[in-house]
Amino acid sequence: MIENLPPCPKCSCAYTYEMNALVVCPECGHEWVPAEAEAADDATTGQRVVKDAVGNVLQDGDSVVVVKALKVKGSPSGIKAGTKVRNIRLVDGTDGHDIDCKVEGFGAMQLKSSVVKKA
């Protein structure tokens, strides 16, 4: 039995009660599973988590190191593995490019988080 039952997510009624595995609102009749409602709240209010190639969580302003050589369109040489990139910014890019940064010698570009490691 849950001691402090959550209020109804639809009408905010505080007089909810348990019925088997569900929590029920007597005012609007809404029924829900409390664990699923908490997971849905975390998914909608939580921020997007971006992880690097080894699983570290990245944040705006982090420094990263490129872990594999990258070809750059229009450049005779690409970005070498081991290149350090400072002050990244996480974005909702296209085709999985979720890091916006400036690479020394190449300028502004977007990288995929799967090709970098947190420094």
From TrEMBL:
GO terms for molecular function: hydrolase activity. Keywords: Hydrolase. The keyword Hydrolase applies. Residues 50-119 form the Protein YjdM C-terminal domain. Residues 5-32 form the Protein YjdM N-terminal domain. It comes from the Bacteria. Belongs to the YjdM family. This is Phosphonoacetate hydrolase.
